[in-house]
Amino acid sequence: MRSLVLSLLLIAGLPGISSAGYREDFAREFMSKTWSGERIEENACIDCHASERMKPVFREIVDEWRKSWHAQNDITCHDCHGGDPKDPSLAMSHQQRGFIGVPPYAKIPDLCGRCHVGILRYFNESGHGKALRTSGKGPHCVVCHGSHNIQKANIEIISEQRCSKCHTYGRAQDMKQAMFLVEKKITEIEDGIKALRRAGIYPEEQEQAFFSTQAEFRTLFHTVDVNLVKERTGEYTRKLDDIEKGISGTFADLRSRKNFSGFLMLLVSGMGVVMLLLSKTPKE
Question: Which end of the chain is more exposed for a tag (fewer CB within 10 A), N or C?
Fold first, then answer.
């Protein structure tokens, strides 16, 4: 409360703050917020870009991000661009908070690679990475995955519409075919894990193994080496088969428990009927 009073006194003592624009901002951003109870964490970057004062093209960034895989995993503006989302005065501070804004085209893989370390290594060794370093115009993360509307990685990213922007689709199609069997099994296991979760079972061991195997395989893809992916398809198929067996075993155990529970219910019900009949038997 003390800090609140001091803040109000400070505001009242500042010169030149009586403009209509300031009063509107003050009423909207300060007076409308609760003074007690749990505070909702705010993000200056999102608040600014989503405001009506921003150009539509910049507001669209927030809309795209909210639908993205990053948003679903709590990856926000400052995780990629730096800055301080809690302090509007430092939100775009390069010196104090490392804000970088839009990175140079050729530096985008390094930006994404701060989190996706293994992918960056494979990308740099690939034809895509070498083309980017040589000409500064080769494809990189954003070209294939998008910038703010990033969706969960899947095989559909490899498409004629996207790949033929830079080269013929033939080799990309070979890569997609090489990945097909493993990706099909990945989808099946994802569906199995979701079904277990809906049943109230959380197979942590299988989930961890699945996440690791899936990440390794999709990291390997960024070599853009069809022969290498084909060579290692069997290895990843075996790993996924083992995970799938564990999930199937959990389903079997679940069915067994349900059957046993059903048997117990029938047994108890039967015993109840017998006891009821015995209680109604005339005594001699």
Answer: C
Is the distance from CB of 250 to CB of 196 less than 8 angstroms? Answer: yes
Helices (H) then strands (E): counts for the chain? 15, 0
Q: 0.85 exceeded by the pTM?
A: no
Round to whole Å and give the CA distance between 57 and 78: 19
Residues near 217 by Cβ (< 8 Å), separated by ≥ 6? 179, 182, 186, 232, 236
Of 233, 117, 239, give the one whose Cα is nearest residue 175. 233
pLDDT at residue 259, as a whole number:
65
Q: What is the full DSSP assignment across 106-148?
A: GGHHHHHTTT-HHHHHHHHHSHHHHHHHHHS-S--HHHHH-SS
pLDDT digits (tens, 9 = 90+) for 104-147: 999 999 999 999 999 999 999 999 999 999 988 889 999 999 99
Q: What is the pLDDT of residue 59?
A: 92
Q: Where are the domains of the chain?
A: 172-284
State in Å, rounded, how far the first CA of the chain is from the last one: 84
